[in-house]
Design a protein that fits this description.
50% helix, two-stranded antiparallel sheet, globular, Serine Threonine Protein Phosphatase 5, Tetratricopeptide repeat, alpha+beta, Ubiquitin Conjugating Enzyme
């Protein structure tokens, strides 16, 4: 028979609640959570001080959590917090809120707990569990959303076409089995019809060394699909243009659509990763709702332009607002700080710069990337048609070379210092450095795009021969360009780490 202790407020050992808590602890350890909760409840009732009452409430909250009574666990922890904020009380409530699925509130509690007590291991462990739970729920919600979007598509298109669209969103970006005969001529004709309505569009080019998702082998030469790069202008904040890459294996089949420009648009799924930026099922459904032949180049380009124009929807305003935060810094720096150091800012408006970066035939693109910007040895190698002559093989498969001329390097560093002087906000360059800037986020993205297309991509193809698994340079379709700053009183060094990048 259980002893429901309800004695006076004092014992030989001090406060009566102490004995009750110990009895509750023993019952909890023995697995009798109901008995433990009775003891803890009595301890709360007879506690002779706020400190003792808080201890009883925290024990009660922990046991409610173990018992699955999460609302009661949250309430008990809240009552403990009413007696004084402390890390253990915040951890208990945060744990309960995590299990209830109230992730935002849980994170606030756990973050405060970690601030109050940086050594609190339980707070750190709970934060890790919270992140894992949030990711699982997000993944479930994404899958449910994609299923709903696929059902929406099936109401507009035949099942086999829908399957092809889903593959376009999820398979390797360049995966295709074959290319329709005469596709290049058809694309050229379509390009001629839309050229006047876009900022820039390139001729169709073969995707070199395209990997097949089914075999892992590469498709080359006449069997490789075509890609077309197009820069489309929209309403503010997209008035400077957005660069998209369209990959076609047939005229009527769904192309693979990738947003190559940085920033947010409704073309790309909200859950798309930074480097993927693939068009989502919602955009393909949007195309299907607009035309009986939704995937021809003309229809796709018109759909992209429509997606960048304000349709009055909450979703469009939300995404555009997110994109605007980055644009405001770029616009302010370009327009309000006129003494720029490099030609990109001085000689080109941003739309013209992006159009030139995407469509320039190369190898030089003045004033965006003039020959004077590149190191003399690199210029000589480009002009001689032998890019290997300008590199040094540091170790097997790793190459180093001078990229910029001394004059351009000085101008670029002066530009960075000029931006620092503007006091405009700058995002951290990476997770390890607190001082520096992402150069794409101050308006230098067209320069980096031109550099990648005209110099780094040809160099990679010269150094790394294509294998039966494809061309390693095929994946050069995104950048993260930044400058880091070191000082004794700021960042003084870079810890040992690994990078996942094709070049640094």
């Amino acid at each position: 028979m259980m002893d429901w202790f309800l004695g006076g407020s004092k014992t030989e050992d001090g406060d009566a609640s102490d004995k009750l808590i110990k009895q509750g602890d023993a019952e909890r350890e023995a697995g009798d959570l109901t008995a433990a909760l009775h003891y803890y409840g009595n301890a709360v009732a007879v506690a002779g001080s706020p400190k003792k009452r808080k201890a009883a409430l925290l024990a009660q909250s922990r046991t409610y959590t173990l018992n699955g009574d999460l609302a009661e666990a949250e309430e008990a922890a809240t009552r403990a917090l009413d007696l004084g904020v402390c890390a253990p009380s915040l951890v208990r409530r945060g744990c309960a809120r995590r299990k209830l699925g109230h992730f935002g509130a849980a994170y606030e509690d756990l973050r405060r707990a970690a601030q109050l007590d940086p050594q609190n291991r339980e707070a750190r462990d709970e934060i890790r569990r919270l992140h894992a739970a949030a990711q699982r729920r997000q993944q479930f919600e994404r899958e449910a959303q994609r299923d709903a979007e696929a059902d929406q598509l099936r109401a507009l298109l035949p099942n086999n076409v829908v399957d092809a669209v889903i593959a376009s969103c999820r398979e390797p970006f360049y995966a295709e089995a074959s290319v329709a005969p005469g596709l290049g001529y058809e694309l050229n004709a379509a390009i001629a019809r839309v050229r006047g309505s876009v900022l820039a569009i390139t001729p169709p080019r073969r995707c070199p060394g395209v990997n097949l998702s089914t075999t892992g082998k590469a498709v080359r030469d006449g069997n490789a699909p075509f890609y077309v790069d197009v820069v489309v202008r929209g309403d503010r904040p997209y008035e400077a243009g957005v660069w998209f890459r369209l990959v076609y294996a047939s005229r009527a089949g769904p192309p693979r659509i990738r947003q190559a420009s940085l920033g947010r648009t409704i073309v790309v799924d909200d859950d798309a990763d930074h480097h993927g930026r693939r068009a989502g099922l919602q955009f393909y459904a949007f195309l299907a709702s607009r035309s009986d032949e939704p995937f021809g180049l003309e229809a796709v380009v018109e759909g992209l332009r429509a997606a960048l124009e304000d349709d009055g929807s909450d979703r469009w305003r939300h995404v555009a607002s997110d994109h605007s935060r980055r644009r405001r810094v770029i616009d302010a720096y370009r327009n309000e700080w006129p003494a720029h150091k490099i030609g990109l800012f001085a000689d080109l408006d941003e739309a013209s710069a992006l159009a030139a970066a995407v469509s320039a035939p190369g190898p030089f693109c003045a004033p965006l990337l003039p020959r004077s910007a590149l190191a003399p040895r690199l210029v000589e190698a480009i002009e001689a048609g032998d890019l290997r002559r300008c590199v040094e093989e540091v170790c097997e498969g790793v190459y180093a070379f001078d990229l910029f001329s001394a004059e351009f390097t000085a101008a670029l560093l002066a530009e960075v210092d000029y931006f620092y002087g503007s006091k405009l906000p700058a995002a951290r360059p990476n997770s390890m450095n607190n001082y520096g800037i992402i150069v794409n986020d101050i308006g230098l993205e067209p320069l980096i795009v031109a550099l990648q297309r005209l110099v780094l991509l040809p160099l990679a193809r010269a150094l790394f021969s294509a294998s039966d698994r494809g061309d390693p340079a095929t994946g050069f379709d995104s950048t993260h360009a930044f400058v880091v700053k070191y000082r004794a009183d700021e960042d003084s060094h870079l810890d040992v780490h690994t990078d996942d990048s094709d070049g640094r």
